[in-house]
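re the bet — no i am not wrong, look at it urself. input seq straight from the record:
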Amino acid sequence: MKRVLIAISLVTVVVVGVVGHAESPAKSPIAGVWKITDGGPGGGRGGAQQPSLWLFTDKHFSRISNQGLGERAAFKNPGAPTAEDKAAAYDSFNANAGTYDIKGNTIVFHVQLAKSQGIVGQDLEQEVEVKGSTLTVKNPNNGVVFRLTRVE
């Protein structure tokens, strides 16, 4: 009887260990928070880095950034922005979020929400490389490259 209990205990430990291990997803190499330090449309950003945050969990992403080299213009009257103020704010900001997959050096962004409605529902395939605290993302369709630095 004692041998049967020991055998059952050992089988239970092995099964729980295997099942627990199988259910643990691999951590994404890009999970964390990143900021753009160089690149984007038009190439390098020079010394005028715009605020940005790219957040990655193991499955989801959110990319938010100011666009252009200058500072975003503030509304002249924050309580009553003009149509021109709104257009300038819209044009100088970018945001999208959803899920992603990485296979080798390819990342596919499955866009579920975006400032630009035209990319919602699209799968945006790009090249990705991680070296230490630097993440490089390149769009093979237009050659735009973003270099990001890990924030956390």
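see?? The chain has a mean pLDDT of 83. told u. also Helices lie at 2-23, 83-91. so pay up
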